[in-house]
Glutamate pyruvate transaminase
Amino acid sequence: MGSNNLRQLNIDNINPHVREAKYAVPGELAVRSEEYRALLAAGSTKLPFKQVISANIGNPQQLDQKPLTFFRQVLSILENPALLEKSDVLVNQLDYKPDVLERAKRLLAAVGSVGAYSASNGAPAIRQSIADFLERRDGFPADQANIYLSAGASSGVNTLLHVICANDKSGILVPIPQYPLYTASLSVLNAACVPYLLDEHRNWGTSLETIKAAREKAKAEGINVRAIVIINPGNPTGASLPEEDIRAVIEYASQERLVILADEVYQTNVFVGEFISFKRMLRQMQQEQPGKFDQVELASLHSVSKGMVGECGHRGGYFELVGFDPEVQAEIYKFVSIMLCAPVIGQCLVELMVNPPREGEPSYELYTKEYNAIFNGLRERATALHKAFEQMEGVECGAPQGSMYLFPTIKLPPRACEAAAAEGRTPDEFYCMRLLEATGVCVVPGSGFGQKEGTLHFRTTFLAPGTEWVGSIVKFHNDFMNQYR
């Protein structure tokens, strides 16, 4: 008898909902790219490229985005408070500014030790700092009691979906294309994903008609549609929603008693127009029409992983609840308590994100210089990528608006589609695999995010340093089109 037969677990008897979940971002292409990276590190010269560009995932510091100095200096003291005993060395020899030391002392007073558990919903002083930020951002008060620290926004999404989805008939409206966290989480929960298509011809804006049609179809199938997910700015599309789209969603959610899940982790990555939070717009609409929107339930999420912070590995984030029933909120608190608390060092990083150095403080000049350099670098690379796509046959892509991604449409020759089918791949997967093999640039096929039937896309970040790798994509595309024409 083989040793495999002695094991309790096998692929056929584990949780089937985990098996069925799909999560394309770290999929086959990413695995292959890491194999190539290992070969290059071992000195291989057999590959047709000299580096792997991981444009498949929004992981800024993997792609050489430098941490913000103020943040890391404060964190270094939080991890090793004994450094405060050598404050003269920190200031005079290591160029720590006095406000770095003061912030570290304040955070240590708030949490005691980053090695200790906090309150399950996060340290009260940090939640208050977030509430103050939200009031500055939106112009409306926020209550720290409604704020929950989480291990990145993904953990917050997981919490909220667990509470909202009561059974297999619970449905969540999810934008297509979407970040696959939502569809994968709903698969694991054995709940219903109710997809609604974004409008590519309106810069990937929301279409109320499409949302209504998706909900009505689900209702006819016996699905209890309970919430709608909005990702703004968009992932994978990079779209930044205008005010009229946000108002329309809130109006519809109010009419149909839908919880709004506003994923706003890219709120500082906006190149066109301004970011408008769902909280701000909801409060404005409540002022304009008193009483009408008082029962709207809104959960909005933010994270230290994106923006100019890019601290994905520290797993810091939060969500704010607006309009939730107190008894439901108590159950949400219980759920987060099961996991004890979010990483406390991540909580402290959230505080730094929402309360960075201000004008007149010693660290402000360097912080602003670093922050602006990251923002301008992202915009420069986004523009370079977009210009490259404009040159490429059969590729269409809207101008970059926000987040860290572009999501171009690609039209491939019939022979390429036939070659893809022969390999058992979708045409966009086939294209992305050939791109990786030829250039070392790893992107994600549009099928991993969902796309309108009959269309093909891929998602690429623009986080990698420099723009020379963009030229390799253009050359590959021309060669690919000529090969399969």
